[in-house]
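Q: I'm writing up a methods section and want to include an example of the input and output format. Could you take the sequence below and give the corresponding predicted structure tokens, formatted cleanly so I can copy it straight into the document?
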Amino acid sequence: MPLLHFLSLPCKPDRPYVTLRSCRYHLPTVRPCCSCDMPNSIVIAERLNRVTDTHREATSTPAGATMPRGTGVRRILTIARNAFREAVRDRVLYNLVLFVLLLTASAIFLGELSAAQEAKIIVDLGLSAMLLFGTFIAIFVGTGLVYKEIERRTLYAILAKPVGRGEFLLGKYLGLCLTLAVNVSVMGVGISLALLFVKRGYDPLALRIWPAVALIYIELMIVVAVALLFSSFSTPALAALLTFAVFVIGHFSADLKTLAAATGTTAARIFFGLLFYLLPNLSHYTKLTDAGHGLMPAPSAFIVALAYALIYIAVLLAAATFIFNRRNFK
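A: Here is the clean output for your methods example:
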């Protein structure tokens, strides 16, 4: 077959893929008439570009129109779900829950040695362990939420998508809060079952402890927000140290106000006064003694504590987003 006649033959429609050997006579200046003469990588790339362009055209909005509100919510929920799955896969969480349950079981045997104080000992030890190990989860997992993504370089792939940095932080925060909710619920159920086992039947204290459990969970939500704020601009070790310091000082917030009033110098009074108003007042969320005696917080006090926590968490997340938006990851 002459060379010019071969070059004039069109590509057959029943042969969509042609090997490079069959196209060896094509001149480099001749443009292929279809994609069968292209390498597979170029064809795949162009198909991906067409899919991307189609998706962009389908999701774009005309000028002046607003994007659907559910779009950002879905992105946040997706990040939160992935953060929850990653935290659940961490064996430390299961070990801590198991340890708290074992501690509650040991409180049953310790209560046998006391005179009619089994329930109080179980509640005191159980809630104290819940607060302590929940704080460890909030600090050590919360400080690594952002750092792990940066260390693994998965943050670049996430931010390359239409995901804002504020949405990323909020999704991570909600994922860890969901993890803590599951852990706190398991711990609370373990304490209630221990009380029912000791009383050999129904005990009103098994239900009266749940407002105290809810307050502990709200406190842990504040601790997670503090950890996320520090992790947005520092290393996990420094963020964990600062978060633990805020946790300890927050439980002695009332003493800071007293110390500020008793201090003679003006500078010290201003310093302790600023600490009192800037750091969270966590003493409102620790009702261990009242729960041990079967006392429940007043509904008004519970609502005020919840509103204070929501406002404080919103401020912390806004500050974390402000700092995180100005970080350069190049």
